Amino acid sequence: MAAFEFKALDANGKQKKGVIEADGPRQVRQQLRDKQLMPVSVELASSRNIENPLKNLFKRSIATADLAMLTRQLSTLIGAGLPIEEAFKATAEQTEKKRIQSMILEIRSKVLEGHSLAGALNEFDYAFPPLYRATVAAGEHAGHLDTVLIRLADYMENSQVNQQKIKLAAVYPIILCLVAIGIVVGLLTYVVPDIVEVFVKNGQELPPLTQAMITASDFLQAHGIKLGIGIVMLFFGFKWAIRKDQLKARYHLAILHMPFFGKMVKGFNTSRFISTLAILNSSGVPLVEAMKIAGQVVSNVVIQERLTIACQQVTEGGSLHQALAQTEIFPPMMLHMIASGEASGELDSMLERTAKTQESDLQNTITTLVSMFEPIMLLVMGGVVVLIVIAIMLPILNMNQMIG
Questions:
Q1: Does residue 370 contact residue 169 with C-beta atoms inside 8 Å?
Q2: Which residues on neighbouring strands pair with residue 21, listed in sequence order?
Q3: Which residue among 157, 190, 211 closes a domain?
Q4: CA dist., res. 402 & res. 278, Å (int)
Q5: Per residue in 293-346, pLDDT tens?
Q6: What DSSP designation does 330 have?
């Protein structure tokens, strides 16, 4: 059986779309007629991407939350004793998103054709990351697919929670920055010119601070739009420039040396690496292979390069903790815990404990940075507003002194 995507019309002439499993297009049309639907088009789901190569350029990965839910459902069903193909069928029926449902049924068709689950997932590498596919392959090989899927579901749910925490922590500072910029621009563009214009018409000599504010106000009024467009172009130009490997490496190296922010980047990347390494190694993936896959989830290219060297050292017979120590990225506590795990033969459990410790430290670092940023931003915003108010009040005070 294969998965077919269809378009049909109901009795009221409304178009319906969906996915149906059948042996061929004729059976799909018959099933649609049995449901009182008029078939408009029936296409093999997997063939649509082959016939339209441009569609492959716009393939979208599955959101972490959707992938975690899918994995949790599969682990529950397979753990309950259902065959893989039945588990995928039940999961497809449970899914409301047509794109994901179509993909699940295509994977099920591959499994029914005799492919392994890992082999079927390789056809959808844009949706399932290397970590996912390697872990499933190890679980199938060891005969513990349900247990591996449970670990994957836990890992992805924890990743989703951590991503949400980081996003929520960044929302308030971003809003505060935008409000601060909006207030300053509004004051300089609309408030300052109207108030100071009175003194200019009277021919009063303005203080240097007030004159500087007028100059800034005139500049924003005359070139504000150009300045905004220039900043946007500069941003996208920078994003384009750092795509080149050499510039990207320099930029990422500079980030690592930034105060506070560099520590957070190190913590984020080491946390992702150790978490991925822990789940892969505990699922039966060989350590060297697990290190190669875990290195792919690291976003900083400088750290990636150092981890590649560490992987080569482990391949040549070196210990994991010594190889990671050479990167000068991992904190001493983490290295001591990994060394203890290697010495006691409990590397799997020690990696998991290390990952949890690092994630906790990362959350504390983010909380500290956000708590520091908020008062600093309020002070900066308040200082700028006070400066503008002083610039407006100085001519008034000078006038009062002259009258007095």
A1: yes
A2: 3
A3: 157
A4: 76
A5: 888 878 888 998 999 999 999 998 888 999 999 988 888 888 898 999 888 888
A6: S
d(CA 89, CA 30): 20
| Strands 15-22 and 2-9, sheet pairing | antiparallel
- What type of residue is 304? Q
Same structural domain, 49 and 72: no
Q: Which of 56, 72, 97 is the last residue of a domain?
A: 56
Task: Give the pair of three-digit tokens for residue 299.
Answer: 């976003």
pTM for the model? 0.64
Burial letters 306-338, b for 16+ CB under 10 A, else e: bbeebbebbeeeeebbebbbebebbbeebbebb
- Cβ-based neighbours of 235, under 8 Å, separated by 6 or more: none
Angle, vertex CA 238, rays to CA 307 and CA 180, nearest 5: 105
Answer yes or no: is 395 within a domain: no
Tokens of 18: 């969906």
Does residue 376 lie in a domain region? no
- How far is residue 80's CA from residue 372's CA, in Å, rounded to a whole number? 49
Residue 14 sits at the vertex; the CA angle it makes with 8 and 19, to the nearest 5 degrees, is 35
Range of the domain at 47: 2-56
Model pLDDT for residues 268-277, shown as the tens digit of each residue: 888 888 888 8
Q: How far is CA 228 from the centre of its chain?
A: 27
Over the chain (404 residues), what is each successive 10-residue block's mean pLDDT?
70 72 73 78 58 45 82 86 85 83 84 83 83 81 79 80 74 80 80 72 74 80 85 88 83 86 84 84 84 84 91 90 90 89 86 83 76 79 82 73 54
Nearest by Cα to 338 from 273, 250, 401:
273
Strand pairing class (15-22; 38-44): unpaired
| Residue 164 in domain | no
CB contact set of 76 (below 8 Å; sequence gap of 6+): none
Distance CA 18, CA 93 (A): 11
Q: Which residues pair with 39 in a beta bridge?
A: 8
* Helix (H/G/I), strand (E/B), else coil: 13: coil
CA neighbours closer than 13 Å in the CB half-sphere of residue 383: 6
Residues 16, 9: contact at Cβ < 8 Å? Answer: yes
Enclosing H/E stretch for 17: strand 15-22
> What is the distance between the alpha carbons of residues 218 and 227, in angstroms, rounded to a whole number?
13
In this structure, how many other beta carbons lie within 10 angstroms of the beta carbon of residue 141?
A: 15
Q: How far is CA 158 from CA 15, 58, 69, 161, 165, in A?
A: 39, 28, 12, 5, 11
